[in-house]
Amino acid sequence: MTDIPDDAPDRPAPDDASLLDELRDAFEVDVDLPPGLVEAARAAFDWRRIDDELAELSAGMQVAGTRAGGGSEAIVFRSAGRRVDVELHPQPGGLVLTGQFEPVASARVRWESPRRASEAAPVDELGMFQLAGAPPGPLRLVFDLDDGTRLLTDWITG
Question: What is the pTM assigned to this prediction?
Fold first, then answer.
């Protein structure tokens, strides 16, 4: 550590003061950002640790998608000992997701997009669930099991 002499000035030198003013001005840029950009950036930053868990889960996960009749899409997610079958149904108010979680476990499920998430819905005694209002674009499912386990599907485009 550097010792500061007792006779050192309390204020920065004139050259230092102008440098500090220039730095302050450089960081006070007023930029109009597109609506939702800051929120999306914060959401991406907030989920950085969750993606670490997702990468681990995705290593053993297989995703298969096929087109079903009526414009719906059927997707299957697999991980060690788990399977999630999901159908995406386009509706005027957004996508409706119906599916089955196997093996059956007491859980709650929600969809997440980069900008928002749905309210959690229960997985019933047959492993069935339904979620509505999912926006078009990237989304994933989050299962919170009663035993404290959290399972995440890979991101898909709805």
Answer: 0.58
